[in-house]
Amino acid sequence: MTESTLTPELEAVVAGAAAAAPAYAALAPAERARILVALGDALEAAKPRLVEIAMRETGLTEARLNGEVTRTAVQLRLFSETVMDGSYLDARIDYADPEFVLGPRPDIRRTHVPLGPIINFSASNFPFAFSVLGGDTASILAAGCPVIVKAHSGHPELSDATADVAREALQSVGAPEGVFNLIHGREAGVAVLKDPRIKAGSFTGSIGIGRLLTDIAAARPTPIPFYGELGSVNPVFITAAATAERADEIASGLITSVAGSAGQLCTKPGFIFIPAGSALPAAVTAAANELPEHRLLDPRIAQSFNERRDTILATAGVSAVIPGGVRFDKDGHGWASPTVVSVSLEDFRAGHQELVEEAFGPLTILVETPEGTDLAALMPEFYEGNLSGTIHVSADEASGTTANVGELRALVTALAKQVGRVLFNGWSTGVAVTPAQQHGGPWPATSNDASTSVGTSAIKRFLRPVAFQNTPAAFLPEALRDDNPLGLPQAISPAGQSGDWGSQYRG
User: What would you give as a GO molecular function for this chain, any one (predicted)?
Assistant: First the structure.
């Protein structure tokens, strides 16, 4: 093992996590579930104090932050159910089979074990749900791994206050010391990521920083997995029939989705493909009447958004449907009102380099597409990976019986190749915290397109499979024992079946 080059303070944190790892991994599922529930309950109990700090540090509204605390607590409790269910362990048992068609088969049993200490880099735009006790921390702890959280510089006071809540809750239920800790500073985060005792990393943030950290994790003498959620523009496709049926409803939902939290969401719809000459731009203008300005998270994000907005507005063929704007106060904070622009598909193609990059703030682009445009072909033409892709169709089109059903199916197929979530007649900024959720996608949406940072499958990022061959029962993990003391799902392959494999499918 490489000698540690950490500061004494960071060495104590990493050494504590490494020391806690075996004891924490060995906890019974019920004990781990109790820890997760205790964290969720403690977070909600501290909601008024934490939300007050978050409002001051981030500029997000009280209603948004109250809802986010609830979401974060629900995530923790959801993972307690995941731990108790045990299906995430994917326990498989192949009994010894002397008559196996390829020669005698040994007894082989496979399950998943925790990786060990993980570093989690917090996000700026979700100071609860993707921060100190957010979804990554919840899934790391649920997997049986100690977590070291690198606080985001945009809300340091909130991070410390939340960490204090977490430590008190962990102590109250007797969690192993060192199973949770918080550090500050980019250099500290990088130093911990490089330490050989750290077995994986998670991140939510920009493509640039995410790529830097991904490369660091891959360049270590022993590379480790790094799960980053990076950038996404989340294209939306609206059919002519849907526009004719409910243009005002679609416009209202669009503005709400773009303006919510000042557009500082990885799931904000950045591009809306609409039929050329449709009523939607006028409906959007009407829906956006007197929208209030909203403070952006910090001066750096505000300046970046303002520059990105200027670039888009200056691109040939772009016209403002809603001009919007950014106002800077005496403290350097930016206050933004939504900007919606339109551009023809021809000019969008010509200005692709200037337009296609994500604008992290309340801005979206309406791309007017001529009748007969092959919408499915637009995805590979313009985009790499995205977190989501949305289609708005009419009631008749939703039945799958209209003349354009083939085109819509082709669009769904194209989207499914390049996004993690395909949704109909809704808006991508609503991410349900539920077992089946997929919040990930091909690069640059995430650094690993097989993973998700929302939903119970997120736990799989911090586990690795191990097979046990001809292992005496006394030495098997409980998940693989014949008496199954934990009552977990087990996929069992009995002896004597291999000779019949595939026989029922012969023609």
Answer: aldehyde dehydrogenase (NADP+) activity
pLDDT tens for 417-440 read 999 999 999 999 989 999 999 999
Nearest Cα residue to 392 out of 271, 246, 260, 276: 246
35: nearest Cα among 65, 96, 95, 77: 77
| Mean predicted confidence (pLDDT) in 309-324 | 97
DSSP 8-state class, residue 87: G
Contact 237, 411 (CB under 8 A): yes
**Environment class of residue 107 by beta-carbon count within 10 Å: exposed (0-12), middle (13-18) or buried (19+)?**
middle
- Whether the upstream peptide bond of residue 156 has omega within 30° of 0, thus cis, is no
Domains of the chain in start order, with CATH, are: 8-230+452-463 (3.40.605.10), 236-424 (3.40.309.10)
pTM of the predicted model as reported, rounded to 2 decimal places: 0.95
The answer to whether the CB of 484 falls within 8 A of the CB of 490 is yes
pLDDT beyond 60 at 345: yes
Rounded CA gap, 195 and 217, in Å?
10
Q: Distance (Å, rounded) from C-alpha 267 to C-alpha 428?
A: 6
- Does 191 score more than 70 pLDDT? yes
81: helix, strand or coil? helix
Computed over its alpha carbons, how large is the radius of gyration of the chain? 25
Active-site annotation holder among 57, 229, 368, 397: 229
Q: For 112, phi and psi rounded to 5 degrees?
A: -120, 145
Whether the upstream peptide bond of residue 444 has omega within 30° of 0, thus cis, is: yes
- Distance from C-alpha of 125 to C-alpha of 265, rounded to nearest angstrom: 7
Residue 355: φ, ψ to 5°: -100, -30
Of 57, 145, 266, 368, the catalytic one is 266
Q: What token pair was written down for 59? A: 């500029």
Question: Could you confirm whether 266 is annotated as catalytic?
Answer: yes
Specify whether 145 is catalytic.
Answer: no
C-alpha distances (whole Å) from 319 to each of 33, 275, 293, 361, 489 are 53, 16, 21, 18, 57
331, amino acid identity: D
Residue 228 near residue 202, CB atoms below 8 Å: yes
